[in-house]
Amino acid sequence: MAFDGVTIANVVSELKKELMGGRLYKIAQPEADELLLTVRQPKGQARLLISAQASLPLLYLTGTNKPSPMTAPNFCMLLRKHLQNGRITDISQPGLERIIRIEIEHLDELGDLRRKILVVEIMGKHSNIIFCDDQGMILDSIKHVTAAVSSLREVLPGRPYFVAETQNKLDALRTDYDDFRRAVAAKPQPLFKAVYGSFTGISPILAQELCYRAGLDGELPAAALTEPDYEKLFDVFSDMARAIREERFVPNIAYTNGSPVEFCALPLTMYGCGKSAEEQPAASKETCRGDRTVCYESMSALLEHFYAEKNTLTHIRQKSADLRRIVQTALERNIKKYDLQLRQIKDTEKRETCRIYGELLNTYGYGAQPGAKSLEALNYYTGEMITIPLDPTLTATENAKKYFDKYGKLKRTYEALSQLTIEVKTEIDHLESISAALDIALYEEDLAQIKEELTESGYIRRKGSTKKQKITSRPYHYISSDGFHIYVGKNNYQNDELTFKFASGNDWWFHAKQMPGSHVIVKLGNAEELPDRTFEEAARLAAYYSKGRDQEKVEIDYIQKKHIKKPGGAKPGFVVYYTNYSMAIDSNISGIRLAE
Question: Core-most of 91, 139, 245, 379, by most CB within 10 Å?
Fold first, then answer.
């Protein structure tokens, strides 16, 4: 998830096309470390969001406005004083540095034409927005950096602006083979680390992608490469540099298990993006979907979507933290109880031995000598001689009674525990299904239904006369490639609703075998049979919305709904079936369309 120099190059390319010649119509500072510039062009207006937040530095075009504070901060007022209605004359990036320079012409108080520079540094916790005059002197910055904070560079009004040289990296756009080989070979590190550690603007994910394209293992020590290996890697590196210079970008997001994990301005072929270098110009004009990647028309659209999706996932994780803690605590308690019960059941396995000892003592006890510690007797169940331990202080009859008493106690324990273990295992399965539902929840309304289930199950106490919360969450609705409607339950209540109230007898039901997961229903409609492709897509959905989504293959049971039964008193989402089909399939659902 690196906002690297190549991503900056892609953003600069877009800003040149959209903002050059435009005038700064509005300047706002919605957050302490954030600017929102509205630029007016003859063709309309555009908004540029610039964030220097330490945790999430960003810069992209957006169509979304943000509310501003009633009183503008000093930095915002200074920009308005100098730049209001100013014209953007140039947008540039020095090399592949994570820096964007926006040059703006404006008229001063006397009506003379002046030039100012807004410098945006996207550098993690060191990110900043710096306002300079045409001589490179700092007028102000959104963050002040004193000598006490940084010994390399002060960022304060009146100080000269310069880019601190801290890493001694080479410019990836101006590197020949000799410099490339020398720089990479000199690093006693894995190959991908040697690549991104040697060149400005290259992120770890892009370095891994370059190794992948060259057919090399990125974890291989750089010093272990042969001359042909270096040549292959440099060819790929040169192709990348040429694509950047020619602005042939393909913004794309890589997904793992439905969550966005990486983005890049060039195709991430190791995640399944199928755009080649020759296809890149066309790719920038359309939205495409690879096996595990999604390509976007612009880097700004990608960044806005990526961080909105990441924020949604982070937000729902935070919102569900309390529910997860309740479920996890209950799970741990029940698992501990279940393990203890299994050990106790194992201890009752000797109950039959006690019964046999008692019977044999009643039969052969007359042969026991007073004070004897054991008795040899024929086990008439097996025809073998066995040794029966005796309490020497008791008679044979009293020893027999002792064994029968122990047998009765162990038998009662076994019968009680047999029922209890079934109940506890059912509760564990129920809690694991709730945990799976929390994993796939994306919205607060999804959590509301899960919370209601936990409340009705007794894990959450309903406060006073609190009424049931209105449920607005609905199952996922997909359309198969053959046009069939597929529905996926998000939780146990929705699973029951889909299977026993929504589905008809001939509709098909899918579920991951012997693991928590969603009920998937395919509506047959007027068709007589489902195509094979729809069977596979429904099975992939069942695999994806299950605890097994991280596995390479998941075994899926499928059967017509009319063969599904719900036992009396069963937990929500629990069903039984006896005659089913099965298939093993992956959990890749990237090609299945989610209905609007």
Answer: 91
